[in-house]
Amino acid sequence: MAAAAELSRAEQQAILTVTCLAAFLFFNSFGSIGVALPMIQKQFGNSLSAVQWVSLMGVVTISSLSFCFGRAGSIFGQRRLYKIGVALYTAGAGLAAIAPLFAHLLLARAVMAIGLAMALPMSTAILANSFHSDRRGQALGWFASAIAVGRMTGPTIGGFLIQLGGWTWIFWMNFIVGVAVTAAVMKIFRGPGKRQREAFDIWGSLALLIGYPALLVGLTFGANLGWTSAQVLCLFITAVIALGSFVWIELRTAKPLVDVAIFKKNQLAAAMATVVLASLMYSPIALCAPIYLQNVLGSSAVATGMTLAALPLSTALASPLSGRMADRFDAATIASGGLAIIVAGIFCYANLDAGSTIAGVVAVLALLGTGIGFFTPANQKVAFTAVSPDDFGVLAAMLSSFATAAGAIGTAFTVALMEIHVGQKQWTEPAALADAQQFAFAWLVSIGLVAVVIAIKSRVARD
């Protein structure tokens, strides 16, 4: 890959535009496919637990494969893997659109998920490599904004396409847009990119590919099957053994997937820790807020969708501003400020009850989205500044994988706290749901305060 110094402004803008378009496509599909799940279940007649894998496939695959592709990008070329990833995603969408059986649909979704896991970490690594430090924050800010807009418009576009021609139209649209994006990627990203001659950590990859999915699937199904059920306990035991083996292998491998030595840098360690804790805090909103709005406040489905849009909309607006400020001022300070706003948003959400108004929920979600928008690009810039360009691919994979896994853990933790507090009646009694939500999110505020302390201590130590 050409160094940032060798790229013209026009080339940098082209790279930013095409990666943002791809990111919009990827994250728009999450929401649009989620809307299609009821129709998919009705057509194929599968159980809800089986159908949810159409959506869950992406989360598990991104978390599990990002590390492997992050290191592979350094060996085979980040641009090469990015092009393959976008093409795989597009091919998978086309296969999903013509899937005659549910098993074929799941296979097609697996192809899409592998492509996504390959392309997503390469996106931020390519942007970090293509832009100098004085403009890197802006690029990462626009990229985060594209992701937020994709999240925001996914359910709306998905609902429109379903009304127009059924759930297959969602995959056809992903395929058609994907073909256009793939063509643009092939034209703009010429060559494989910079490569390094080094061995690939096969055993570490195998341990991770066993342990990470086992952990995430166990957390996902624990709330439904019971945390002490045989299936869930078996998954957790598998995860402990495999992930323990992964750590053991990484500490003894010459070229590991994750070089633990880079975490000795306080700035990077703090950036990664705050990513994990922030994702733990705000990810449960995606599950809890729609249920709270409809079951407690009596909001219609349309009104709920419009209310929830306040979060990604505010994130989309705040992210470019955060990136610009991170380039002009101290990025760690901007990230710390965004983190504090996230904690304030979670605190306000924890105080919502059965008497709250829709306008109040919109204000809380907008506050939270603003915090995410200010935190994410600035924190990413802090992380990329702390490592050499040779480690950008692995770092991008860690940011993606850790955030996704932490979100799943945070959601499972929140559901467990809610059920401990009031039991299963939270899903049928509005007052119980509001009370359980307040209890769980109060705990999440305490996690957020820990994250703020870590961010402040890291900045003090650096100064």
Topology record:
Elements lengths: L8 H36 L3 H4 L1 H24 L1 H20 L4 H29 L2 H33 L2 H21 L13 H24 L4 H21 L15 H17 L2 H12 L4 H8 L1 H19 L2 H20 L7 H28 L6 H31 L7 H33 L1
Number of helices: 17
Q: Identify the overall geometry.
A: globular
Just name the CATH architecture of the largest domain.
Up-down Bundle
- CATH domain class of the largest domain: Mainly Alpha
Secondary-structure-based class equals: mainly alpha
Question: Please, what is the average pLDDT?
Answer: 81
| Number of spatially distinct domains | 3
Written as H for each helix and E for each strand, in order along the chain, the element string is: HHHHHHHHHHHHHHHHH
| Helix proportion range | over 70%
Strand content: under 5%
Which homologous superfamily in CATH is the superfamily of the largest domain?
MFS general substrate transporter like domains
Distance between the termini: 34 Å
Describe the protein.
With about 475 residues, this protein is mostly helical. It has three domains: about 1-195, Growth Hormone, Chain: A, CATH 1.20.1250; about 200-255; about 260-463, Growth Hormone, Chain: A (Up-down Bundle). About 80% of the residues lie in helices and about 0% in strands. It is built from 17 helices and no strands. It has helices at about 10-45, 50, 55-75, 80-95, 100-130, 135-165, 170-190, 200-225, 230-250, 265-280, 285-295, 300-310, 310-330, 330-350, 360-385, 390-420, 430-460. Helix 3 runs antiparallel to helix 8. The longest helix has about 35 residues, at about 10-45. The chain is globular and about 60 Å long. The model has no long low-confidence stretch (mean pLDDT about 80).
